[in-house]
Amino acid sequence: MRIIRYSLDGRTGRGVLVGDVVHELPEDATGPGPVAGRLADVTLLSPCDPRVIVCAGSNYAGQIAEKGRPWPEQPALFLKAPNAVVGPEAEVVRPAEVRRLEYEGELAVVIGRTARQVPAERAADFVLGYTCANDVTAHDWRADGQWIRAKSADTFCPLGPWIETDVGDPSALRVTTRLGSRVVQKGSTSEMVFGIGELLAFVTRWITLAPGDVLLTGSPAGVGELVPGDVVEVEISGIGTLRNTVTRRAQ
């Protein structure tokens, strides 16, 4: 099932996409409701509205090797603020002061039920589904000494295009990032150092995750620069493609 959030005729709704038909999905429903319109008629929003976005850094073997980093003994976590979330086709705004803005294509895990001290082997019971993410980062702002500004500026967390509730094996998904027609990242979730179960178990030892919260699982090798005018796409097999355009914010 593909779960979406959308805007249509001035209202925001939650729906299920069946082919190119959007069905309403009331908050207490488990399946498609009345037809709201066609996909071409709606504006897709971020498919969830998280209050918490927990991210795993340096979680792909290829990126660790590329950067010459030591092999991690435990997940390296950081947060992105909810104000950073935007949906598919939304603009990613590069602040004028940023010297280097970077893309990081990632698999995002969307939580389906309250998760606290989740055993790794039961992680799937707490997952609603999966979507594509771009962990946009102001590289030079990392020098702040912490990553709040570097990771959480407005528009720095595109999510979408929908939540796919059935992806088969989430540990064997292809993750591809493109700038225009050029492939700049190509990897597989099988390269993760810590899998989804391990990450969810580690995070929820201390942080309770609620339905709609998001876990970003790390990015493959090939992280690079975004400049105004770039069209960046994150495609994950079995899910879909998240597409955004980069613009510049004036001083």
Describe this protein's structure.
With 251 residues, the chain is mainly beta. 8% of the residues lie in helices and 41% in strands. The protein has helices at residues 61-67, 148-152, 196-203; strands spanning 2-8, 11-18, 21-24, 35-38, 43-45, 53-57, 76-80, 85-86, 91-94, 101-103, 105-111, 127-134, 137-138, 157-164, 174-179, 182-188, 214-216, 224-226, 231-236, 240-248.
Provide the succession of SSEs.
EEEEEEHEEEEEEEHEEEHEEEE
Shape: globular
Instruction: Give the uncertain stretches in residue-range form.
Output: none
Q: What is the number of beta strands? A: 20
Count of individual helical segments: 3
CATH topology of the largest domain: Fumarylacetoacetate hydrolase, domain 2
The CA-CA distance between the termini, in Å, is 43 Å
Please identify the top-level CATH class of the largest domain.
Alpha Beta
Domains (count): 2
CATH architecture of the largest domain: Alpha-Beta Complex
GO molecular function: isomerase activity; metal ion binding
Domain Fumarylacetoacetase-like C-terminal: 53-246
Keywords: Metal-binding
Domain Rv2993c-like N-terminal: 1-47
